[in-house]
Fold this protein.
Amino acid sequence: FRKIEYWIEGDRNKQMKLDRQEWDSEKIRKRLTKWSVFILISLVISTFMFMYIVGYEQVFQIMIEGPAEHPLKFITMIFFTMTFYFVFAWLREQVCTLVCPYGRLQGVLIDKQTINVYYDFKRGEGRSKWRNNEDRKASGKGDCIDCNQCVVVCPTGIDIRNGQQLECVNCTAC
């Protein structure tokens, strides 16, 4: 969903600019396109989930007969479609950190062979605002220039430099 959002609205800076601008034809077009694509994908996901539960033959039969013949199943599909849409359009990382049990168990499931996103303390510390790489190296400073961009781009808002954290969803945006 984030890639779709980047494709329609642009990168993070363009999205922030779009959020601040007044509602004009460009903003309305981009938002309606994004929301329509999100709803369409949510409908496809809920349809496949429904097919997994009741079988694809029965789902096709329900589609042929129409919602008037199966109102409860139709309402259930609409409910799950809207639930998926709400999760993908607004909750996103909150689901990963608060609702999903894997997010809570992730810390205890990590061992030495786990591929994970980490800040390299040996290379990055000590942090320095100096722009000249030679001066920074000569004074014993690391490669981290403390620009805070890793925190800005993080969808959950954590500072990867503070070590492994529960909120990290390993998206590698940092």
In short: Residues 25-54 form the longest helix (30 residues). The two ends are 18 Å apart (CA to CA). DSSP finds ten helices and no strands in the chain. The chain has a mean pLDDT of 82.
